[in-house]
Amino acid sequence: MIQVRQEEISFAPVGQEQQEQIPSQGQGLDPTRIVEMSLNASKAIHAFHIEVGVGQYQLHKYLEEVYEDLDEFGDSLGELYQGVTGNLSLGIDLNRTPVDEPTKAEDVIGFLDYFIGVICGLSGIDKGIDNLTSTYAEKLRKHISMLLRF
């Protein structure tokens, strides 16, 4: 299972009940923590992409799109939030929200499903952030749809 290792933001795969301390729909997570989560998930999925290798070529290639989108989202959210707050140093600490490496496509699907709820919880901060989260939530839904085929 791909999992964010900090108790308050860990998650369960699709279909399993999430722990009580987990904020639903992104409630309680500030954008800086979501940037960290997105960048760490990108790294973890990238590592899984390498491990899958050419043995499962289609999955290997598709995971590349997933980790690139998560990296782009984290970068874009960080930059937009800097603009909203006027603070150029958000205090990003990737050690604060490490993410376990997935071992199968279902782990990635579980994370993406959870992460869609997290990013949708950002609505109302700023119109640019709303547009970004809407765009990426749709991309992540498409990734889930594609990953269900593997």
Q: What keyword list fits this structure?
A:
globular; 150 residues; mainly alpha
Q: N- to C-terminal separation?
A: 16 Å
Instruction: List how many beta strands DSSP finds.
Output: 0
Q: Find the structural class using helix and strand composition.
A: mainly alpha
Order of helices and strands: HHHH
The number of helices is 4
Beta-strand percentage range: under 5%
Q: How would you sum up the global shape? A: globular
Pick out the low-confidence regions. 5-26
Secondary structure: helix percent: 55-70%
Layout: helices, strands, pairs:
Layout: H1 31-52, H2 57-85, H3 105-120, H4 127-147
Could you characterize what this model shows?
This protein is mostly helical. The protein has one domain. Helices cover about 60% and strands about 0% of the residues. It has 4 helices and no strands. Helix 1 packs antiparallel against helix 2, helix 1 runs antiparallel to helix 3 and helix 2 runs antiparallel to helix 4. About 15% of the residues have low confidence.
Summarize the structure in short.
The protein is mostly helical and 150 residues long. Helices cover 59% and strands 0% of the residues. The relative contact order is 0.21.
